[in-house]
Amino acid sequence: LRLSQDQKTIFYHPAMGEAYERQRMLEKGLETALERDELHLYFQPQVSLSTGLIVGAEALLRWQHPGLGNVSPDEFIPVAEATGIIIPIGDWVLRQACEFWGELKQQGIIDQAVVAVNLSAGQFRHTGLVNMIRDIVSVTGMPYDQLELEITESHLMHDLDASVEIMKRLQQLGVALAIDDFGTGYSSLSTLNGFPLDKLKIDRSFVVGIPGNRSNETLVEAIIQMAHALNLKIITEGVETKVQVEWLKKHGSNEIQGYYFSKPLPRDEFVAFIQQGQTL
Ligand code: C2E
Ligand code: CA
Ligand code: CA
Ligand code: CA
């Protein structure tokens, strides 16, 4: 949609014009964000509730825009998805995360821990994902079984047969598959039964008010029980307090991720955190 200055003043309320301008800035900025070195990965530790040890980390994208400052991924990822630029950016994220993990492994800083990478729906359906992962692994020396991909329910609902096919191929390689933000979409646990999955990630919106919020408690209890019945490992995100940790441990969540243990950290701080031997 392109309008002249005059048309704009006629059809747009000033506030709408501002939102439109910002949108355009984000779209334009994303085109050059990679080459201008404005994107960075942070890593948020994931910790086992049975051992208290770090068992993985989620890679989370950060964008420092020259004019707008830090832009939240909740704002720019949807824009990147809409323009299609998420494909090269997503490739970059996967490569960076695996490269970093390969280095940590080589240096003996991590052993068996996994790195979890978020995949956008477009990336997931992009033919060549499996080959790209093969290529990345061969270059970075990162073992397949230390890579986990986080996908959301909407990925699965789009094209069932094609999704299952890609997922099976990834699993055959040894890559683990986690369903992210579980409970926020429309799928039920019985739908999940048909998919080759390893892990279920309970969305942080359900953790709010636990313990105490009876409806959230009941929901999380039900999700955990059924996920276990489907042989899925459970990680709960957005865990911020000690009482939440205790409640989740008691109710069978295998792992947690959240501010209580650590915020997402830039590489050097993440390495320092691991080297200090932090445990829950
Ligand atoms: P997500 O995948 O659900 O990631 C978890 C979000 O919760 C992260 O927000 C993380 O910083 C935040 N978080 C973690 N622990 C806590 C906690 O204890 N309390 C609270 N209040 N928040 C917590 P972030 O980093 O802003 O990312 C937002 C979303 O952007 C992600 O949600 C994910 O959907 C998307 N995203 C981030 N990086 C990537 C990426 O590389 N690729 C794709 N496709 N999406 C990404
Ligand atoms: Ca995620
Ligand atoms: Ca999530
Ligand atoms: Ca989320």
UniProtKB/TrEMBL annotation:
Domain EAL residue range list: 23-278
Protein name: cyclic-guanylate-specific phosphodiesterase
The species this protein was found in: Gynuella sunshinyii YC6258
